[in-house]
Amino acid sequence: MLAEFNEFAPAKLNLFLKIINKRDDGYHNLRSGVTFINLYDEITAKKNSYFKVKYIGKFAPQNNTFKDCIIEKLFSQFKLDKPNYCFTIKKNIPIQSGLGSASSNAAAVIRILEKLNYKNLKNKNFAEIGADLPFFVENQDSLVRGIGDITVKKPFPKYYFLLIKPIQNCSTKEMYNEINIDKINFDLNFDTDEICEFDTGNDFEPIVESKYTEISSLLKFMRNLPEVIFSRLTGSGSCIFSAFESFESAELSLSIFKDNFPENWSTVVENNFIYKK
Length: 277
Hints:
The protein is α+β, with helices and mostly antiparallel strands.
């Protein structure tokens, strides 16, 4: 057995996100076009005398550990034996951002466990751990439906994105609690495995624009950048992004943004890329 394994854990963007309805179990059915971007956390698993999970990097938590660590949850939820490896996760993706870093980390660990000959992992109901996890396990751009448990492989256009992390964070729980079910009017006839004309925007944006003043202001600024195609919230936030046809346009807007908002984390990323290790 190898003494060390390495995996990239890419972030995702929701190109659109529609809230379909609320289920009897309290969860919401969604449909979303989700694409991978070339912003990664890095996972290294090294042979060790005992099992350990350690977070490092720019967006690592204090004391290098999360109280609600999704990796620990993965092993406990599915009653998996913990291998004698130290999993070091370098956090390059902002947390509490809607970029899916926790689920992507868990999917990367699952890929390592498969290399360690853990059996039948693909048969697990990964949505029990996180709504984004089935998408990250499938590891391909997809139309995501249900509570995240239905993934349909879909190609999306090539974009370059200006990606922004506001100082404000969005609470996923609070965002869902703000949903007014009476105002949801998505025609269920269009909730199919095909992308349709109504698949645009993000239904969490009206909540953000009324509840989070900083994010609302940043979105207004980004929608007026030169050559921008669209600007949007990803997931339930708090990261926001603008899409461009060319890298040069995205870089120009990054420069403009940094001149106006130097205190915010920002970068240019792309989808439809080739992994580079």
